[in-house]
Specification:
Layout lengths: L2 E6 L4 E10 L3 E7 L3 H13 L3 E12 L5 H9 L27 E9 L2 E4 L4 E2 L12 E5 L4 E11 L10 E13 L6 H6 L5 E4 L2 E4 L7 H9 L2 E16 L5 H20 L1
Helix pairs in contact: 1-5
Amino acid sequence: MQKERRKEGKKGIMAGFEILNQSENEITIAIDKTTPAFVNAVRRTAVFDVPVLAIEDVYFTKNSSALYDEIIAHRLGLVPLKTDPKSYNLPEDCTCKGKLCAKCSVKIILKAKGPATVYSGDMKFKDPAIKAVHAQIPIVKLLEGQEIELEAIAILGKGKVHAKWSPCHAWHRGGPEFTFTKEADAKAVLDKIPGDVVRKDGRSIEVKDFGKWTDAYEQMLRGAGVEVKNSETRFILYLESWGQLKPAEILTQAVGILQSKVKEAKI
């Protein structure tokens, strides 16, 4: 288990971060000794304040497809792009003052002739480090004689401005706490819950893998007389990345941004 300790607030509110489960695009963490407000602040910061690249402007030279320019531009804007936030500035923070220089924007070229299906992987980026997260997202289908030619510009942005700049989906819940009442007869139910999901010890139970834990298990336990409550001091945060950044990167940036906001509030 990896653990990270951070302090927030004037009174020194301690929040313990413990990674419970991690994969390429998902991470599940426990945040201990904290409040619902703090956990929700981390969640909102991750979804709305961590910047990623997305296509903002599209300039068409040719488009004889069946789709209007606006529809194709909208589809392009929603294509997740691999992002290196250290290599680019937010336009409003760039030295070019929002004029979209190479430090805050990347140019993209897309050319195709039919018959063909144009995919996100057909886009050519001026910066080779940037690419579509998924190369097989359909953009438009071209028939014989149809063609498309355009130039697009991708910039860093935040999810609070538009959902295309949101790097992830995140949600949280209170950690489940179980109490076996005298009337509880949960043995049959516990036998139905896989051993890799929970740790069972007589009349006690502890969730081992929150990635596999579902509300159905809680309903089964309640039906057998076990009291299930959500903790008010220990929370489980689930974060699923769209692929622009790794889940751990999003979480690290979110906590850093939140700390910066706290410092600004103190001034």
